[in-house]
Amino acid sequence: MSDNRSVAEAFEELADLLEITGANAFRVNATRKVARILNDYQGDLREAAEESGGLESIEGIGASSADRIRQWCASGNISEIDKLRSDVPEGLIELLHISGIGPKTVRRFWQEAGITDLQSLKNAIEEGTLESLPRMGAKTIANIAESIAFAEQASERTSIGIALPVAEELAQALLDTGHADRVEYAGSLRRGCETIGDIDLLATASDASRLVSAFTTLPGITKVLAAGDTKASIRIDAGIQVDLRIVSASEWGAAMLYFTGSKEHNVLLRQRARESKRRLNEYGLFPDDGEEASPQSRGIEPIAGSTEESIYDALGLSWRPPELREARNELEQTPTLIVDADVRRDLHTHTTASDGHLSIEDMANEAIRRGFDALAITDHSRSSVQANGLDAERLIAHVENIRRVDASMKDIKLLAGSEVDIHADGSLDYDDEILAMLDIVVASPHVALKQSPKDATARLIAAASHPHVHIIGHPTGRMIGRRPGLEPDMAAICKAAAAHDTALEINANPRRLDLCDLHVRLAVQHGVPIAINTDAHDASHFDFLRYGVLTARRGMLTAELCINAWPIDRLMEWLDR
Ligand code: DGT
Ligand code: CA
Ligand code: CA
Ligand code: ZN
């Protein structure tokens, strides 16, 4: 399946390049259409490419597209792309990653203002040359400048969606060398932060220097930044810095505590230790004899240190989950936080009916494989044209399909739903009669994400108060590091949601994590029901769940307030009200 995706991406790139180089609109659109068809194609493209006429028999694939696909299958390349790439300055392509800049705009920058990369775009904005272009308003330019600034300040940190799998692989790779007894990640990653500055690994090893050499010679390293007796830093090809520290087993808990942080949580714990005449550092919890020099250097035995629990315990505290260690109020209060296993279902997913990659059946089977008891199919509504949103007629047919598939599957309950657009004014994209026939309605903002906080608040309150809406999906519409999204008065939204018993979603896609942790906290304080959904467009996207749960835990969510964790009967009653 992933081959299909890669070919589709190649056709997307081809369409971008054609558009940037000024090919006619018909060709550009036709190429994009092929990309979409390939993306949605359920069969094996490689197999189809080997059969004579196999590709041509796919609806919408003509002879020239078939040739390009065969070329890709044979060589991993499409020669036309290589040729176009050499016609276009390299730095131009990367402008496409900036929110609000499409290939048409990139072409104009290039042709009309001589812009070839990010730096020359920034210069042109600063010098005012962009403003002299026809049909280029001050507002558009200001928006572009804002997007660049936003992307730049965010780009130094890495998404947890990238860092967490990388850290797990590295930890496993170190264990596989046979030179480590124990390896775990600490730092902001262990606290479940949405972005991380660097990965902090902690290890125990009988021979620390052998582990350091193994670490600094792992495959995929681009630079060894430092290598000492018990610690080392590397940069890996994902561009992430990784610090490794090797500690003794008797210090493990103290080191984990220290390097998990946050710094501010550590300060609170050290204060607490001092209040009872003790000293806490990365080597252990020691009696404080008033001497300046570190206790471990003077051979003083620690009171605790081998486990985190023993240290918290000696401080008169129960163990605190890393996600809460942010010096918010974790020393006063620790509820039993939700865990991955509490989540029994996903209530926001897409199929090929809109912009998803799998059929209803395939999504249902994947959900069964993951042990879910129910799955809501919520494809896009008509206004989401770029996501192939369904008009009322297609939705009605889709609902029938979902119910038919549901009737044929006994291991899972399929809910027929929709992810309905919330218009800028708070109205919804389908009439009430249409919404009334659905099992579940997720209402989400997708456009007008730069409206004023006042308008955004009114918009989301209207949606949360709508009698047919069950869940507000990704309430702010932010994309981490790309766009800030809506900035509503979240307390006011929470009040409306609580009053109407409408759930707010934690969208678990690591690029979104929307609600963010602080918004979850606010919602929990208001007693708002919370949904944790992956917004899956493909089988692998169900893996996002863990990021949603980490964010939920940072927001102090308990299973009791999470509709995905309720017994199914309770959920069905709640949906039916
Ligand atoms: P990051 O990497 O920026 O996402 O955030 P962290 O929290 O992982 O920070 P990092 O990698 O600089 O350090 C890891 C942990 O080590 C940090 O959470 C707490 C601890 N730590 C580092 N430097 C200090 C310090 O100067 N004082 C204290 N108390 N703790 C520190
Ligand atoms: Ca770190
Ligand atoms: Ca670090
Ligand atoms: Zn969605």
Write up this protein.
Helix 21 packs across helix 22 (about 545-555). This protein folds into 4 domains: about 1-155, DNA polymerase, domain 1 (Orthogonal Bundle); about 160-245, Beta Polymerase, domain 2 (2-Layer Sandwich), CATH 3.30.460; about 250-325, Beta Polymerase, domain 3, CATH 3.30.210.10; about 340-575, Metal-dependent hydrolases (TIM Barrel, Alpha-Beta Barrel). It has about 575 residues and is of the alpha/beta class. About 45% of the residues lie in helices and about 15% in strands. The model has no long low-confidence stretch (mean pLDDT about 95). The strands form 4 sheets. It has a 7-stranded parallel sheet with strand order 10-11-12-13-14-15-16. Bound molecules: 2'-deoxyguanosine-5'-triphosphate (DGT), calcium ion (2 copies) and zinc ion. 2'-deoxyguanosine-5'-triphosphate (DGT) binds near residues 187, 193, 200, 258 and 263.
Structural descriptors:
577 residues, alpha/beta, DNA polymerase, domain 1, Beta Polymerase, domain 2, Beta Polymerase, domain 3, 4 domains, seven-stranded parallel beta sheet, five-stranded mixed beta sheet, 16 strands, 43% helix, binds 2'-deoxyguanosine-5'-triphosphate, binds calcium ion, binds zinc ion
